[in-house]
Structures are given as structure tokens and as C-alpha cells.
User: What shape does this take?
Amino acid sequence: MISSPARRPATLAVAAAVLAAEGLLGLVLGGYVAVETLIGKPSDMSSALAEAAFGMLAGAGIGWVAWGVWQALRWSRGPGVVTQIFILPVAISLIGSRQYAFGVPLVVAAVIVLVSLLAPQSTHALMGEDGSTGDSPGSPD
Assistant: This one.
């Protein structure tokens, strides 16, 4: 874990900031769906509530990953990368359906996070000097 911001690579700070924004967006949109469900008349109440809960849980999960990236915790890289890999097809579908205002920012955010998390500086900060996890035979741990 990196406790000093001076030792945290800029790539991790950028990835954490974009992940935090994605998490906040998930929380806000999930909350919006929940409020609209409760004050409106949805055609399927249980599906609408499940969608709201999923959005808020996904947002909270992405926020937790953002915190892990900010702290340079090794476990946070995998979920951060996988989340962006899942976001890309959604963004491309939005662009394909001419929803450019939603699709293009999603593609940009996903690419920024992927490039930031996979940068050599991030690998060094998250995995150690040579990129190994220390779990290999013969490691001093």
C-alpha cells in the first residue's frame, strides 16, 4: 500500500479518479431509478427495484475498486480492468445506436482506465520491483 501521495504514480491517481467517477455515476443513476420507481408507476415493480439495486451496488463496488487503486492495493487492478472490459461493449452498442453523448464518454473513460492501470508505473506500484507477486517458489516471503 502506498501511503504517500508523492510515491503514488500519476497513472494510479488518474485510474482511481475515473473509476470513482464511474462509481458515483452508478450510484446516482441507481438512486434515480429507485426514486422514479417509488414515486412513479412502473410496469414491473420488482424488475425496476432490482435494476435500481443493481445500479447502486455496481456503483458502490466500482467505488471500492477506486479506493483500492488509490491505495495501490494489488487486488484492485483485476476488478478495475475487468470492469472496463465490460464497459467497452456497452459503450460501443450505445455508439452503434447513435447515443453518442453516452457512448463516447464511456469509451474514453474505459480506455483511460485501461491504459492507466496497465501502464508500467502502475504495474511497478501494484506488483513490486519486477512485476512478480511474490507468490513464486523461492521468493523471500
The radius of gyration is 18 Å.
